[in-house]
Amino acid sequence: MLSGNAHIMTCDTDWCSPVMLEEAIRIFGDIPVTYFSTGEYKALDELARNEPALVGPHPNLSGKHHKSCEFENQLLDHLNRYPQAEGYRCHGHMDSAWIQMKMVELNYIWESNMCCHMEPGLKPVKMFSGLTRFPVWLEDDVWMSKKNQEGPTEMKDALGIPGMKVFNFHPVHLCENVMVRALFDWIVDNVDKWTTPSEEMKRCEF
Ligand SMILES: [Zn+2]
Predict the structure, then answer these.
(1) Given this model, what pLDDT does residue 201 score?
(2) HSE on the CB side for 22, CA within 13 Å?
(3) Is 90 part of a structural domain of the chain?
(4) Does residue 1 belong to any structural domain of this protein?
């Protein structure tokens, strides 16, 4: 991770199928991406072997108490899978003093656990725990949930304003080309299982 006016691409896997992840990797192409993984993915295991700093955990700690073994197991599961990871982002940006202190104890040094939607002048923040926070500038599911979504012109203008810009995309939204929250909710209700992205989906890729 960098600072200043850097543009940084990240991806939360959010339990997508391996095929969807591979499709997302294809879409990202040559752009360096930091992945936050929700499970076992061959493609990320391979990447972590060569570039350990580019793969971190995406634990789902919603509803879990810091004193419970589920809390501990979620973290240890990821720690064992990516022992050299230095950064993390929790699902839903879940954060607490306990989470931060536990992650420091587990040798993490940075996190990206907050979204400041298109806020100008963002920079890394030193947290009380000692972790450095890299706030997200643009996240697909935040944008798609907005009533008044910014269009290409507003995006272009905002991109020209100084500040660190961390982007966060999810393979499922890239592969299904989800532009509005309602479409994603419909897909969740009507599609049994995430499968191979269809040729049609590939055609309308953005
Ligand atoms: Zn997530």
Answers:
(1) 46
(2) 10
(3) yes
(4) no
What is the CA(190)–ligand 1 centre distance, in A?
21
**pLDDT tens-place string over residues 169-192:** 999 888 877 666 666 666 666 655
Cα–ligand 1 centroid distance for 187 (angstroms): 17
Q: Which domain holds residue 49?
A: 7-203
144 lies in a domain?
yes
Calculate how far, in angstroms, residue 11's C-alpha sits from the geometric centre of ligand 1: 9
Nearest to 102 by CA among 134, 69, 135: 69
Cα 155 to ligand 1 centre (Å) = 23
Distance 47 CA to ligand 1 centre (A): 20
Number of domains the chain contains: 1
**Which regions in the chain score pLDDT beneath 70?**
1-4, 178-206
pTM of the model as a whole: 0.85
Instruction: State the Cα–Cα distance between residues 102 and 59, nearest whole angstrom.
Output: 13
